[in-house]
Amino acid sequence: MKVDHTASRRSAPPSFTTPKSLPEFQRVFPDEGSCAAYLYAARVPAGFICPYCQTQGQPYRFKNQPDMLRCRVCKRNTRLTAGTTMQKSQTPISTWFWGAWRAIPRECRPCSSRSSWA
Ligand SMILES: [Zn+2]
Fold first, then answer.
1. Cα of 57 from ligand 1 centre, angstroms
2. Which domain, by its residues, includes 42?
């Protein structure tokens, strides 16, 4: 009996497709530190200014808490996520970024030809 391996392989269900942009996302934000760095640049574009003593300058940074900034003068802590939804959450910044990033293309899709299906 002859078995056509080519045909069986062809009829097999296609393997799941990873979103093309996921590797791109992971390349840009591979860890918490890179997310925090982006957040830092977005939130304090002109440099860190301590909200307590108004001292301007590079704050202390912590490897295990990438969103934490400590004033070099008064030693008080400020979080990059302060004043945002992320502040109250224990969710890693990278998770927030991933969720927010995924929401963008989904929001944009109705603008495309897909709207004609509605
Ligand atoms: Zn300070």
1. 10
2. 21-84
